[in-house]
Every structure is written in C-alpha cells, then in structure tokens.
Amino acid sequence: MEILALSGVSKSFPGVKALDDVRLSLRAGEVMALVGENGAGKSTLVKILTGIEKPDAGEILIDGAPVDFGSPFDAWRAGITAIHQETVMFDDLTVAENIHMGHHPTLGRGPFRRFVDWRAMRAHTSAVLARLEVNISPDTVLRELTVAQKHIVGIAKALSHDSRIVIMDEPTAALSQHEIGELYKIVAQLKAAGKAVLFISHKFDELFAIADRWTVLRDGRFIGAGTIGDVTRDELVTMMVGRRLDQVFPKVTVPIGETVLEVEDLSHPTEFDGISFKLGRGEILGFYGLVGAGRSEAMQALFGITRPSRGRVRIAGREITVRNPSDAIRAGIAYVPEDRQIQGAILPMSITENITLPMVDRVNGGPVLRPKRERALARRFGERLAVKATHWDQPVANLSGGNQQKVLIAKWLATDPAVIILDEPTKGIDVGSKAAVHEFMGELVKSGLAVILVSSELPEILGMSDNIIVMHEGRIRRRFRRAEATAEAVVTAATGGA
C-alpha cells in the first residue's frame, strides 16, 4: 500500500534549482533507498518531507490525499520523522527526556496540564526501547552511552509517537560493523510493523542489504526508480554520476622513489604496539583494519595529537621528535582527520580562513592580517581541488560533505607537506566526490608526495593502494603488495586469521 507520493516537486533557492520535477513513492512495509551525489537534492527533499521547506511546485500525497506542511510540527503530526546522521540531542539529559523532548506527557487537565508526568514518560520510554529490543535504562544520562546507543535513542525518539514514515539519513556513518548489523535488525522490525522507510546512504553494500526499491536523483532531477533486485551497482553509479564504477578508483601508477617516511616500533600504552613501516615518494600506502584496530590512533600519534610511549620517526632520513601537531607540520607531515566536522574544519569560519589556518603566520608575514594574500592562497588550492562554492568567504558549514572534505585537503596541501595522511577521506561523501578525491590522490603522488590512506572501505584500499598494511588489535597483522592483495586475504588478516 502506498503511504506517501510526491509528484512534480520543485524547489529553487537564490541562484540554485535544488529540485526540478521530482517524484517519489513510499509503501508500507518497504525500504526505499534514495541515492544520489552530494548536491543531487536529497537533503532538500528531506526538508520538504519534514516541513522545514515548502516546495515551489508539485504535490505531496499521504494515503492519496494532498497535504501542505506549514511547519515541521505538521509533518510530525502526519507521522513523518527523520533520523539524521548528526542527531541533535542533549548529553546532560536522560534517555527519557531526550526521547520526549517537545512532547512530554503531563499531569492534570485543561489549563492545569503543566507538570511533567515522569512515571508515564519512563514507562513509555521503556516500552519504545523494548520494541527495539535494546537494554537501555530510561534514566541513563545520554553522555554515558556509546555512539551506537545514541543512534538507537534517536530512532526511539522518532518512533515515540508511532510514526508511519521513517527517514534515515546516513544512519550508519559513525557505527561499527556489529552496530550496523543491529541497525539492520531495527529496520527489519520497522518493515514488519508496516512502516515506510526512506533510507539514504552512500554505501552500496547497505543499500543492497536492506532496500526493497531505489530512486536515483542527479542534479535535482529524478533519474530513475525500480526494484533493488533488478539493478546492479554499476548501473546505479552510472545513473548517479554519469560514469562507470571502474572510474571511481582511477589508480595512477607512479614509480615509487626514495624513502620519505620511516617509522620504527611506534607504540602506545593502550592503542597500538610495534608499528614499523617505510613510505616512499609517490607511494600510496593503505592502512586497513576493523574498528578498534588502532589505525587512526597510530596516525594521530605520528601527527602529534597523542604521545607514543616509544618509537622513532624519520623524515628523509632525519630523525624528528613530534610533541604536537606544530612539530609535525614543520617536519612536513599533514593529517586530514576522519571526523571533518569536529577535528577537521571550523564550520562557522570561511573557506579562506579554514585553508590558511595552519599557516596563518607565514601567509600574513607578521601580526597584521592580509586578507588579499589569504584569499589568493585559498583560491589557488580551492580551485586545484575544484571546491564548489559561491565565493571563498562562504562558511564551510554551508558546503556539502564532499566539498567540506576538499577544503580540508586543500588546507593541508597549502602547508607544502612531504607526507599527507588521509584518514577516511571519502567517509560520508557521494560516489562522484569520492572519484574526485581519488583522482586528486593520483595527482598528489604524481607531484612527488607520499600518501598514507586509512580507510575502512575495502574497495578503496584495494583500488588505490600501492602497498597495504593490515592491522588487528593494535598490531600490524600482515603486509601486501598491490598485486597480491585480494579481498578475502585482507579481510582474513583484519579479523585475526592466518
């Protein structure tokens, strides 16, 4: 049974046609995968469905009747809820308080309904969590939960008023493989309960694992829709970005030159032990491992974010001491972190300010800021990475995920490093932006840089690396040359197998 249908939906913003004649349908007991690049119009469509934006044209039908959402509350009353990648909740409130924020049960009647019914709120919270088959106390303060548990609380919040349509926007971005499996079970429960689920993800494995149907948007337009069993991964990629899957990993073969970075016995009391490797000029060295393997932690120690207990690091044969990131930058090491919104970019600041931040003293040449110099540098590296923005003073918060990532890479390239560490460089960005990042990695090694690629996406590691190091429980488990690396062998090593 079709619960929701959109037809002819269009939406424009100043200078941008975000949606143009888009259609979509959601059915009870089904998962619809909404697929598209960053900038394809997915976020705008979600905002229209949740009452944040009003369409300029088109029609929204629920159970065959037209609806007009004047506010998010109207969409909420109609049974539509959204679970976003970055769910806004309150760490210092309890699980029950977060789930019922904005719709607390109250005591009394009429004008006397002014006191929170704490007993009813806890009981309802317990019932919702029981439906999800999770063991979390309603009285637990949110900050005491893991990332995965917070996501579950976000789902419980969405279901606390018995939604009929559940929108999940990149819900697995911060979850481990085990936690993703638990989320799949929750999605199956929603389907069994007759809910319609709109699932947005850049991970094709997820889409093929749980979706029943698919809809593709590109440049704000409807491209196609169908049953998930009748489409291939290659066909979806072609519809999304107009290019084949083999063009997403455009590996450039560059002769590996002299050793640029040498790490010997790098260790940390709790995170990793005995990490040793060499990295040559023009080489892409892939680091692969499951959650908790210690890959990112080792890279953060190299960059001076954390202090190792022992180990030696040499750049171009010269031993260096890295006490903090400033030491690493001066030595020629750059680090693009996994969490671009927390550790990487300063979102309220402009593109120019973000790109020039690590070398603001060198750009300005003294205590007085020189905006023209800063803007020229930002333009040079922003254009080099094809950052899509209206102007270079635009806040990074207003950019898509893919363009935020490009700003981060531009920021560290501007420091003129010898070694650049890319930690999950394509996490949470679309296929087209991934291809652009991969193409630029090829340009980096062709220009003589040495690249360390840390990724949990196996196709990316296999497709882009010259050599691969696999970590397991804080140690190097195995090393592979590109020609000998297979998906089975790499995953076996990552799980601790022989």
UniProtKB/TrEMBL annotation:
InterPro entries: AAA+_ATPase, ABC_carbohydrate_import_ATPase, ABC_transporter-like_ATP-bd, ABC_transporter-like_CS, P-loop_NTPase. The keyword ATP-binding applies. Keywords: ATP-binding, Cell membrane, Membrane, Nucleotide-binding, Repeat, Sugar transport, Translocase, Transport. GO terms for cellular component: plasma membrane. The keyword Hydrolase does not apply. It is a peripheral membrane protein. It is found in: Cell membrane. Pfam families: ABC_tran (PF00005). Residues 4-244, 243-498 form the ABC transporter domain. PROSITE patterns: ABC_TRANSPORTER_1, ABC_TRANSPORTER_2. GO terms for molecular function: ATP binding; ATP hydrolysis activity. This is Ribose import ATP-binding protein RbsA 1. It comes from Skermanella aerolata.
